[in-house]
Amino acid sequence: MKLDDMAAFARVAQLGNFTRAALALGMSTSNLSHTIRRLETAVGHRLLQRNSRSVSVTEAGKTLLEAVEPSLVSIYDALESLDQKRDLVSGTLRLTATRQAYEAVVRPVLVGFSKAYPQATIEVLIDTAYRDIVADQLDAGIRLGEKLQQDMIALKVGPDLAMAVVASPDYLENKPAITQPADLTGHRCINYKMVTAGSLYAWEFEKDGKPLEVSVSGPLTSNEPEIMLSAALDGVGVGYLLEHEVAPYLENGKLVRLLADWTPPFPGFHLYYPSKRQMRPTLSAFLAMVRQHRSVA
């Protein structure tokens, strides 16, 4: 037995007329008659008495109608409620992001978003590794564009970025000059640990379209960029960090940039979500606010 068949039966019983019921259901009278006959065959009872002038419900039909009608009403009410909420920005928006992605993309719009949509909540899970959005029941993630998986819809939410090799003036004093990436092997460098891969990140460079990777060594390894930045400021060694994170310290002279011609821009932060999933209104509103902020900024 199909739910549509029982809904058709209930509509005929309510209206007492096949023609009007067929019109209400958006189907032909002949198809409606076939539907009722199919339902009667399935239940093994005649449900409706028909003649040329009227339609009446049999005792078996009344029994079935009393059972299914409240459920049908509940289903229709639920569908109507969902339809009303379809365009409502509410509920929890669950995001996964790195700390840098949060600072660059989420934090600048958080106050404005919470004021504009008081019924919505943003939940941000900070993680350097990629998470299975579907399995973890997340709405979207924010990561660098060059690292995204192929089965994701990716929408750019930030400008292109660049890395910067930096060191404090105190560290550079009386040290060999760093004029090309290979020179880094003779220096104390601050390493980045890729926790998921269980390995150290090889610093990436590019010049004249030719990529180059350099494995460095030094007194400190961390998976937290803030620790790496503070270590570079303290003169522990040479750091490799996002350009916009070190910009204030380059301006005030606490850090010196090196190998700038070896660190060209690369795709910035992208918001991504599964290609088979329809974007929720809350995610759509968040994305619109992020893009608006970018255009103003």
Task: Explain what you see.
The chain folds into 3 domains: 83 residues, Orthogonal Bundle (Arc Repressor Mutant, subunit A); 98 residues, 3-Layer(aba) Sandwich (D-Maltodextrin-Binding Protein, domain 2), CATH 3.40.190; 100 residues, D-Maltodextrin-Binding Protein, domain 2 (3-Layer(aba) Sandwich), CATH 3.40.190.290. The protein is an alpha+beta fold. The protein has a 5-stranded mixed β-sheet with strand order 4-3-5-15-6, covered by helices on one side. Strands 13-7-14 form a 3-stranded antiparallel β-sheet. The chain is built from 9 helices and 15 strands. The mean pLDDT is 88. The protein is 40% helix and 23% strand. The longest helix is centred in the N-terminal third of the chain and has 27 residues.
CATH topology of the largest domain: D-Maltodextrin-Binding Protein, domain 2
Low-confidence stretches: none
- Annotated CATH architecture of the largest domain: 3-Layer(aba) Sandwich
Number of helices: 9
* Number of β-strand runs: 15
Summary keywords:
single chain; 297 residues; alpha+beta; Arc Repressor Mutant, subunit A; D-Maltodextrin-Binding Protein, domain 2; 3-stranded antiparallel β-sheet; rod-shaped
Topology:
Elements: H1 3-15, H2 18-25, H3 29-43, E1 48-50, E2 55-57, H4 59-85, E3 91-97, H5 99-116, E4 120-126, E5 140-144, E6 152-156, E7 163-167, H6 169-172, E8 190-194, E9 199-200, E10 203-207, E11 210-214, E12 220-222, H7 225-233, E13 239-242, H8 243-251, E14 256-258, E15 269-274, H9 281-296
Parallel strand pairs: 3-4, 3-5, 8-12
Antiparallel strand pairs: 1-2, 5-15, 6-15, 7-13, 7-14, 8-9, 10-11
